[in-house]
Amino acid sequence: MQNLLKGVLFVIALNSCHNNDNVNNNNNNNKVTSFQLSEFQTRIFKVKANDTLDRYLNGLKELDSYLVDNQLHDSLYNLAYLYNVVPKNEEDSLALRLQLTRHAQQFNKINDYKEALKFYLLASGYVKDLHTDKYVWNIENRIGAIYARMGDYDKTLYYYKLCTPYLISNKDHSTLSRLYKEIGRTYMWLGNYDEMKKYYDEGISFGVLGKEYRGLQAIHEAYGDYFLNYCTEENKLINAYTHIRNSGSYLDSLDLDEDRLDREQSLDVLFGQYFDKKGEYDLSAYHYCKALENAGIIYTSPKSREIAKIYHKLAQLSLLKQNLPESNEYIKKGINKLLPGYGQKELPEVHEIDRENTFIDLLDVKSAYYHQLFEQSKDKILLDSALMALDIAINANDQLNKKLLLNNSKYLSVATNKSLVNKAITYCFEGFGIDPSGKYTDKARKYFDLSKSIIFLENQSRNSIRTMMSEEDKIKYDGITEKLLSLIDKLDENEDTKNIELDITGQSQLLSDIESKYQTQKVEMMPISKPYVEYVETDVDYYMLTNIGNHTFYRLGDRVILNSKISLVNKLLQKKESDSMFANLDTLCRWLLPLELENTPKLTIIPDGKLAYLPFDILRRDGKYLFENHIISLLFHYHQPVYDENKKTDPSMYILNPEYKKPEIPGYASLDRGSLTFLPFAEEEINQINPYFTDNDSLQQIVDFETLKEKVKMADIFHFAGHAIVRSDSAFLALMDAGQNVVPVFDNDIYQMTNNLELVTLSACETGLGDFKYGEGVKSLATSFLHSGSKSIVYSLWKADDQSTADLMGSFYKQLYEGKTKDEALHQAKKDFLVTGNPEQKHPYYWAAFVVAGDTSPIFEPGIKSIYYWAGGLLLLFGVYLFFQNKTKNV
User: What average pLDDT score do residues 153-173 get?
Assistant: First the structure.
C-alpha cells in the first residue's frame, strides 16, 4: 500500500513540476489532472478490494497531506468520490469517521468552511455512541463552530451539546470549560442572557476543577464581550474592563505560544472596543492594530475572516474620527480578506458574496462611509451609492436567512435585516427632501416591504402553495411536515439523535419536491390597492408611507416620545379614564395621520413597533372617534395573497367554547376573559352565533390538541370563546379536559398547525399581544393562526369584558351573515353596541378591544341571504295563496 502511494505521489509531484514549467501562464500549476486522479482511484481501489479499509484510508490521509503541503489546494475538491466507501464493521466506521474529519480539516486550513462542513457532517453520521466517542471535540464541536459563522445558532447549540455526554462521562473538566464558553456565547447571540450566564458560570467552575486556564481566560473574555456589546446596565463598561483584565491575567498560564498569540489578539480587539466606547480613539486604534499584527502571524492564508473582522473595526473607528479615506482603505482590505483578488473595486457584486456575516458588517460601514461623503457634498450619487451598499448587504443577509431552518436563528437574521433597512429608509427620506420627484419614494416602498413580516411572508407563500395541491399531495405534504416538525423539536431540544440533520435535510427536500410541482400555480402576492397607511419604526424615528393624497412619504418624529404616548393611552384604557385619554388620542391622531381623510371611508393600517398595540378605531379627530367616519382594518404587510373570490353559500364553522369550572361562591364569575374562571356570558355568545350557521360543531367541555388540529383543518371559520393567557415568553388558549384540567394550546403549537381558515375569531383576552420580534412583528396567538394558514383574524388588544364581548360577537356574525365584509361587520357591531348597549359601557374599554386583520372580504356572498329571504317570502305567499284557493274550492 505504502509503495503504491509513494509511486502515485511521485507521479503527481512530477506532473506538478511539469505543469509549473509549461503551463504557468494558464494558472494550472496548482492542479492534479483528472487523469492522474482517475489513475490513482483505479490503483487504490484495487488495494481496497484486497486490503483493510483502515490502510486504504491511511492512503487517503497521505494524499491529503501531500496536496496541502505542496499547496495543490484545487485538487482537494476532486477527491470526494474517493470517500464513497461502506464500512463493514464498527472499527471501519470509526476509521472512516476519523479520515473524513482529517479531510475536512484540510479545508479548514485553507479557510473553506463550507466545504469542510460537508465532510464534518459525513463524519458525524458515523458516530455510534456519543458517551464513548473521543472525536466529538474534533467533529461535532467543529460543526457547531462553522454553523456559528453562518449565523445558524440553533444548529450551533445542537452540535455543541452533542459533545457534552463524552466530556461529562470522562470528567474532562478542562474541555467542558471551553465548551461551556462556546455554548454560553451562542445563547448570548440569541439574546438568552440567563442561559448564557448559567453556562459561563458552570464553565468557570469546570475550569477551576480542571485547572483549565484556556477555559477561564476565554470565559472572562466572553463576559467582557457581553458587557461591552449586549448588556444594558449602567456600570457595563466597568464590568467589561474588569473581565477583560481578568482574562488577560491568565495569558501567562497558557502552554502554547500559538494559543497565547490567538488570545492576545482577541483581547486586543476587546480593548479596542472598550476604548472606542469611552471615546479614547487613539488607544482604541493602538489595540486594533496590535490585534491585526498578531492575527497576521496566526492566519497566513490569503482568505481570513478573523483579519477581515479587525479591518471592519478599524474602518468603523476611522469613520468616528472623520478620517474617510482611511476608513475606505480598511473596508477594501477587509473585503480582500474575504475575497482574495478583489482589488480596489468600490463594491463587490452580489454573486461574489458568500455565506459570511462579515460581508454584511463591511458593507454596512461602506454605506456609512458614502453617507458621510453625501452629508459633506449633498451629491445624490453618493447617497445612491450608500443605498447600493445597503442593498448588497441586505441581499447577503437574505442569502443567509434562506439557509436557516429554526425561528430563533431566523429572528436574529431578520433583526439584522431590519437594522440595515432602517438606515436605508432614513437615507431615502434625506433624498426625498432633495428630490421629491418620486425616485426616493419608490426606493422607500421597497425598503418598507423589507422592514417587517419576513418570516410571515415565507409562511404565507408556503400556505398558498398547499391550497393548490391535489388531495393526495396534501396528505403527503402534511405527513412530511409533521415529521419535519418532530425532527426540528428534537434539534431544538438538543436530543442526542443520530443523523438528525441528515433526516431534516431529507424531509425538507421532499417538501421542496412537492412544492416545486405547484410553483407556477401558487397564489400571487399583490400590493394592496385600497387606501392604506404603513408605518416603520427605525432606531430614531417613525416613518410613514401612504397612497392617500399627494404627499406620500413622512417622517413622523421621535420613536421614544411616540411610544411613550401609546403606552400611556393603553394604561388609561385599562383604568377606563376619559379626559386625559381623549387628549392623548387627539395628539396621536394628529401625529400619526397628518392626512385629509374626508374621502376615505375605508382605511387599512400596516403597523410597526408599538403601533401594533394601538386601537386606531379610538383615535380622535374633531371630537369624534376615528371609527365613526372610517372603517379600519389591519394588515401586517403591503403585499397580500390574492384569494379565490368564490364564497360558500353555507360555510362550516367550528366553535370551541370550553366550560370552565363554575365558582363555589354563588354569583361569582369572571368579568373578563383573562383568568381561568367561569364565563357566564360565553354560552350566551354562542347562542347568538349559532342561528347563522347550519353546519357548525360546538364543543362545550372536552377537546384535546390533536382533535383541535383536525377540526380546524376541516372548517372554514373557527370561533374560540374562552380564556387566553399571555405571558412574557409565551401565550396559550386554555382548553379543558374531562377532569376539568386546563389543556394549554401555546402560540408555538398553533404556529405549527395547518389550516385554510377563512376567518378565526379569538373571543378572549389579549390575543393580539405577545413578544415583539424586531424586524418581524408581534408573535401572538393571533399572528400564529395567520402564520399557519388563516386568511383573516379578529383578536383583542386588552382584557376583554365578558358581557360586552358576547354582545359584540353576536352582532358581528349577524353583519357577516347579511353579506358585509369582515371590517364592515366589526365596524357596524361596534356602532350598534354604542347605540343599544349599556350606558355604563360606552367607554372604549368595553367595545374597542377587538380588531380585524388580514383578508376582509365577505364570508357570505353579498346579497345571497337577501335572495334567500325573498325566495322564502315568495314561497310563503304562494303557499298561502294555494291554501285559500283550495279552501274556496271546497266551499
Answer: 92
